[in-house]
Write a structure and sequence with these properties.
Number of strands: 5
Structural class: alpha/beta
Distance between the termini: 19 Å
Shape: globular
Strand content: 5-15%
Order of helices and strands: EHEHEHEHEHH
Mean pLDDT: 80
Helix content: 40-55%
Radius of gyration: 13 Å
C-alpha cells in the first residue's frame, strides 16, 4: 500500500513495485487508506511523513492496531522526523526511504519483506 498525496511520487513507487511483481493499492488520503486497510491485506505500507488530514504518529498507530505485523516504511527528507517517530513506533527505522528517492534503496524492500 502506498499513501502519498504527491501524484508523481506515488506513481514512481507504484510503477517500480508493480514491475517487481507486487500488487499495489494507492491512496492519496490517509483516512481512506486506514478505512480500506485490513489485517494481513498488505505486507508493506509506504507513506509520506507529511500527509494532510492525519499526522504520521496517528497513521502508524492506527495501522499497527489493525495489523502489528505489517511493515511501515515512511518516506521523508527530514531525518529528525524519523527520530521523533521512533519514540512512538520503535521498529520504524527498519525500512525508511529517504528523499531524494533512489531505486537502489527501493531494491532493499525485498530484503525487508523477507527478514
Amino acid at each position: 500500500m502506498i499513501v502519498n498525496d504527491d501524484y508523481d511520487i506515488t506513481n514512481l513507487f507504484k510503477d517500480f513495485l508493480e514491475c517487481n511483481g507486487y500488487v499495489v493499492d494507492v491512496y492519496t488520503n490517509p483516512i481512506d487508506a486506514i478505512f480500506n486497510f485490513r489485517k494481513q491485506s498488505h505486507d508493506l505500507i509506504i507513506f509520506d511523513l507529511k500527509l494532510p488530514k492525519m499526522d504520521e504518529i496517528s497513521l502508524c498507530q492506527k495501522i499497527k492496531a489493525i495489523d502489528e505485523q505489517v511493515i511501515i516504511c515512511p518516506t521523508t527528507a527530514d531525518k529528525n522526523l524519523i527520530q521523533d517517530l521512533q519514540k512512538d513506533i520503535t521498529d520504524i527505522e527498519k525500512a525508511v526511504i529517504y528523499k531524494p528517492v533512489f531505486f537502489k534503496r527501493l531494491n532493499k524492500i525485498d530484503t525487508v519483506l523477507i527478514s
